[in-house]
Design goal:
The protein contains 18 helices and twelve strands. By secondary structure, the protein is of the alpha/beta class. It folds into four domains: about 120 residues, NusB-like (N-utilizing Substance Protein B Homolog, Chain A, Orthogonal Bundle), CATH 1.10.940.10; about 30 residues, no CATH class; about 60 residues, Alpha-Beta Plaits (2-Layer Sandwich); about 200 residues, Vaccinia Virus protein VP39 (Rossmann fold, 3-Layer(aba) Sandwich), CATH 3.40.50. Strands 5, 6, 7, 8, 9, 10, 11 and 12 form an eight-stranded mixed beta sheet that branches. The model has no long low-confidence stretch (mean pLDDT about 95).
């Protein structure tokens, strides 16, 4: 019997919204889990099914299309969603017996699409469980092979191959298919890493120090969400990837200085800046969305960052504030190609044309921040992307047009292990090399 308390039903409903109604997976899943009364193990299963199926979508469709007369993408949405969820469990979840995956998929299809579609689901998934998927494409077409094997869009594989070897690209894509750890930045305005680790341990969470960031913890994701902990409510930490924890030290604003955070929402890096400044000085945190400005304020209040002024505003026109700043951070809107392990649906939403549009926006925001920086000021630009057009390409263009700016070394501001990777005041992190999100940080100074 199919019931709303079945985590597979919740996963089906969320995945259908993601695939057919353009919902963002993290928002749709979070909303559905909030409304549900599922216990922790079922919440974890639903999360695994949604993210895992989205992540492996192209590989799953390759397997299913070999068993169907027409592509699975042309099937009834409820049938296609059930087939994909069932195939993910059969192909990638060893702990779920094949017969159980088939049975639940058939039952959900019957309830949502009728007996005829349920019969199709039964026949296709039983054959997949019995015979396995068809062979992968050959290496005579490396773009197709890597795209299917690692479930990434062909345009992205082709773009990566234009700059890296087949072996390197294969490693990059494989790393995107490994679910990321849950990492938190310890709020040094209120505590320290050892104390927060002890606090979380008392609540049943297992932690270990992050490898690179000196104020981070890796939290095991068993049990209830870490956001339900008392330590979270008390503002002792903020959930953040380790790479993002390196941004505030890279800028290094002095206590008592004036700082612009040009694209600040949701406010995590803003609070990191306040901590580096010992909560002394002034941070103006901008975002173009009123709702996201409210989120900045909410996070700053929970974490005790009292020097932050969150304001709505377009960072391309920050000069209208009539202010000058000692430091500026541009955490630019980007393609998110560095966080595909964390946001698997992004890989199906992006293309090269969007990257060109983003590049123009990034360049305009960077210029806006530069125009309000005092002589002698420091400017940091960062993205969660690995695409050079969004990273070094933007910096090179900016420096050509702004001769008063020059690169400023990150040495002494980033972990020593990363210093050999620095190039002219810029650092590019890769998931398959550094174990973090793909992330770019560049530091520049304005001449006096």
């Amino acid at each position: 019997m199919v019931t709303r308390s079945d985590p597979r039903v919740l996963a089906h409903d969320v995945l259908k919204r993601v695939l057919y109604h353009h919902a963002f997976a993290d928002i749709a899943l979070g909303s559905a889990l909030t409304r549900s009364a599922l216990p922790s193990p079922d919440r974890r299963l639903a999360t695994e099914l949604v993210y895992g199926t989205t992540r492996r979508l192209l590989s799953i469709d390759w397997a299913l299309d070999g068993l169907l007369k027409k592509p699975v993408s042309s099937a009834h949405p409820d049938l296609a969603t059930s087939l994909r969820l069932g195939a993910y469990q059969i192909l990638y979840l060893d702990r779920v017996p094949g017969y159980a995956a088939v049975d639940r998929a058939v039952g959900i299809t019957r309830a949502k699409a009728g007996e005829r579609e349920a019969g199709v689901a039964n026949a296709v998934l039983r054959k997949l469980a019995r015979d396995g998927p068809r062979p992968l494409p050959g290496w005579d077409e490396p773009v197709v092979r890597l795209s299917v094997e690692h479930s990434h869009p062909g345009w992205l594989v082709k773009d990566l191959l234009s700059r890296s070897s087949v072996e390197e690209v294969s490693r990059m894509l494989a790393a995107n298919n490994v679910p990321p750890p849950l990492e938190v930045w310890v709020n040094t305005l209120r505590s320290d890493r050892d104390t927060v680790a002890e606090s979380l341990a008392r609540e049943g969470y297992t932690t270990r120090p992050t490898r690179l960031a000196k104020h981070g913890l890796v939290v095991e994701m068993e049990g209830r969400p870490v956001e339900e902990s008392r330590a979270f409510r008390d503002g002792l930490f903020y959930v953040m990837d380790e790479a993002a924890m390196l941004v505030a030290p890279a800028l290094g604003p002095a206590a008592g200085s004036t700082v612009l955070d040009a694209c600040a929402a949701p406010g995590g890096k803003t609070v990191c800046l306040a901590a580096v400044m010992e909560n002394r000085g002034r941070i103006v945190a901008l975002d173009i969305s009123d709702a996201r400005v409210a989120l900045i304020r909410q996070n700053c209040e929970r974490l005790g960052a009292t020097i932050v002024e969150a304001r709505p505003g377009d960072a391309r026109d920050v000069g209208r504030l009539g202010m000058q700043f000692d430091y500026a951070l541009v955490d630019a809107p980007c393609s998110g190609l560095g966080v595909l392990r964390r946001r698997p649906d992004l890989r199906w939403r992006k293309d090269l044309d969007q990257i060109e549009g983003l590049r123009r926006l990034q360049r305009a925001i960077l210029q806006g921040a530069a125009d309000v920086l005092k002589p002698g000021g420091i400017l940091v630009y960062c993205t969660c992307s690995i695409h050079p057009d969004e990273n070094n390409g933007v910096i090179e263009s900016f420096l050509r047009d702004n001769p008063r700016f020059h690169t400023s070394s990150l040495r002494g501001r980033i972990p020593p292990e990363l210093e050999p990777d620095e190039r002219d005041g810029a650092l590019q992190l890769y998931t398959h090399i550094h174990g973090t999100d793909g992330f770019f940080i560049a530091r520049m100074a304005k001449e006096i």
